[in-house]
Amino acid sequence: MLSVISYPVFAISVILSLVLSISLFPVGWFEFRPEWLGLMVFYWTFRAPAQFGILFAWCLGLLLDVLEATPLGVNALGMALIAFLVLTIHQRLRMYPIPQQCVMVFLLIGINQMLVHFIKQMLGGEDAGFSYLLPALSSAIVWPFVCVLLDNLNRKLG
Amino acid sequence: MAGGSAIKTIFVQGPVPGFRLLLVIVISAVVIVADARFDRLTPVRSVIGTGLAPIHWLGNAPSELEHWVAGLFTTREDLQAENEDLRARLLILERRALKYAALASENNELRRLMNSSEVLDDRVIVGEIVGVSPDPFSHEVIINKGSRDGVTVGQAILDANGLLGQVQQTSSFTSRVLLVSDSSHAVPVEVVRNGLRAILLGNGDINALELVHVPDTADIREGDLLVSSGLGGRFPKGYPVAEVASITKESGEPFVNIKATPKARLNQSRLVLVVFPPEGERDEDGNAPGQSSATVNVEPGDEVER
């Protein structure tokens, strides 16, 4: 839990993550695109669990649903689940060293991806093996950088 | 809350925020079913999409910047060469247009003689692709024309070479286009050479479409051009869609396996044309012929398989 958080940093990070989740990405690397919004939900509920919670994550997920043209509520539910899991473990999470945090990011974003994939399947999506878990892997890899960057910004501007 | 501000509590949100999760799960279930099964939330999606238009704009900004920078470093000679090239092409196209005008009037004359009042010229507006779908398993693009420009769901989208797809969703400033190669997309087509009708399905491969339910004995060859037949009532008639690439016959199967390559450059085009169905022009002609042509169009559409 940070002592101070900066709301401008929060707003900019969320907008940037939405832009990154639709902006052009190298062709052939689409499957590896990190789940940016999931990382933001993870970070903000982890650092400021008093201010950001499940309902906030749900609203952000709704925006992602519109951007990705998935049925409304699918990603919203996934994001809310990330927020819920972070809220239940955030006290232990703060004690973990960075590599262990990365493992938790992989698990939580993986759970989110599985849920989203499962609902899409029920609504008649196509099966694509296990490649839907790749964003969880890439998210875990970028997590240390995102975390350090946002921490520094929060300390300077908060 | 008064005590909470003085002493920092460890449990910031109660023991476990399970109730909120339950609430959110129930809301999500209702919203998902309402949206996916009953299509009740299209206006909501459209409103949120309009609010998110700046996000699309920002997402496209890097490539706009790249274009701008590339434009800065173009030499005068290159521009002149391009200019001359374009002028030459314009001349060729103008000549063709002259011939086309004569042919069109002749065609209209013939159609009038045959008592059918189909309007040949469609109205189009030019749009630009400002984004692609972030989901690697769906073939969709986002264009910068929306309901404010009169775009509605179901309109056909072309590029310079052929049919690109159809509008799936609109918001005020952008709309989402489903490409012909998406696995949920189908176009009714006919072979230009002999008018053989079939359905062209996308299969998730950007370079190959599938022509289905063509009998073993049908007259179709590699290299045949497939144009939209207009029978579904969704796509206008006569735009090139694909070219037959390979035909494989397997003994014992009732239908042949036919692969076709799309004519439109699905992953390269930047400028697209949004086609407006000729409703307005039909109304100008008067209602009676418009209605009769509509009924004439519908009847063959019902019996696709002869």
Automatic annotation (TrEMBL), chain A:
Pfam families: MreD (PF04093). One of its GO terms (biological process) is regulation of cell shape. Keywords: Cell inner membrane, Cell membrane, Cell shape, Membrane, Transmembrane, Transmembrane helix. The chain crosses the membrane at residues 6-29, 41-64, 70-90, 102-119, 131-150. It comes from the Bacteria. GO terms for cellular component: plasma membrane. The keyword DNA damage does not apply. The keyword Transmembrane helix applies. Involved in formation of the rod shape of the cell. May also contribute to regulation of formation of penicillin-binding proteins. This is Rod shape-determining protein MreD. It comes from Marinobacter lipolyticus SM19.
